[in-house]
Amino acid sequence: MKPRLRFLICAGLFLLLGLLAIHLGGRLQPYQDIVEHGPAPEVLGNPYLAAEHFLRKQGLQVVRANGLEVLDNLPSAGHSLLLLGSRSRMTPRQADRLLEWASKGGHLLFIAERIYDESDGKSGDLLADRLGIQQFEAKELDEDKSTEPEAPEDNRTEEQAAASVSPQDDQELAEGDPFPELTKLYLENEQAPAYAGFDPEFHLYDSQNRAHAWANSAKATHMLQLDHGDGLVTVLTDGWIWQNRDIDEYDNAWLLWYLTQDSTVTLLYRAERDSLVTLLGQNFPEALVALALFVVLLLWHVGQRQGPLQAPASRARRQLQEHLRGSADFLLRRSGQSSLLQGLQRDIQRRARHRHPGFERLPVAEQWQVLGRLTRLPPSAISQAMRPLPKQRLTAADFTRQVAHLQTLRNAL
Known about the structure:
Number of strands: 11
Order of helices and strands: HHHEEHEHEHHEEEEEEHEHHHHHHH
CATH class of the largest domain: Alpha Beta
Radius of gyration: 48 Å
Low-confidence stretches: 151-174
Strand order of the largest sheet: 1-11-2-3-10-9-8
């Protein structure tokens, strides 16, 4: 191809590529897009992280704890302890310790975890049972009147009447209340209540009439506050309102600040100890796996074998050849090759002494010569049969061949 033609072709290709780039560049338009990566790992690992940051922005000192060991160095006065984690494995001693801490001037806030069982007379929630706080499902209030709180002698009757209203009262209340599902907290010198998004399916009942403050929805009570010694105890039906996804709804964040204001806040996410198995699994998983394998192998070793039982063979059917073979196999396994071969050599020497007195006192070379004269076998056969045995184990073929040499020599005597 001529250089001029090659140049024209390359120039045409570059021109086409340039025109294509200009065309595509004119059609492309820059834009901005927001890619949602979801919550950060810190948020996923702490459902109350937003609550911590909110309280710190309000000027409160917030401390996070993972166990009741925090009570060892936590003063009661001026401190609020919020139990937001599970208490299913809490011991009676731990419950008494928490209430004792609150009685010395602390503010203890916890979530009622279990439904009250009238047949047992308790719910199984150690803290709620000790304070006389009973939790019911709100739908059972109309079905079982025995679960309704008794009317106190003071103005609390008017505040908790929503727990025992009739259907007609419910309708009238719903018409006058624009937010019947929300929990309302009334404060002095305030025209409108504060609203919180508690779960309306649960209701708290103060069986000992100790509560001095509470918050209700249209049909249930969701917060009770009572004095305990020199301190304060607040009981809630649920703590979801302060989790990351719900704290910014209604007045949920304000309620958290209101309950903890003017105090140092300690958020306790785990009010129970890990079991020994859990601790071992977290710190020594390899040791647990090794222990499990050892137990399995031990059980397999000592366990009874499964399968059909084989009846022992009848002795009447065994022939002489089978007995001899079995005896020989037993001797070979029990004594070894050397013992059997040495036995044959000693038998040959014993027979030679009978035919040639003083045979045992002769040197080895002369003994082999005497055996050659007595048996008329060549010296090589005598040497092959009577030579010292090697220390290593013979192969099956060598062992059989050596036995044959010894038997030939013995038979010749």
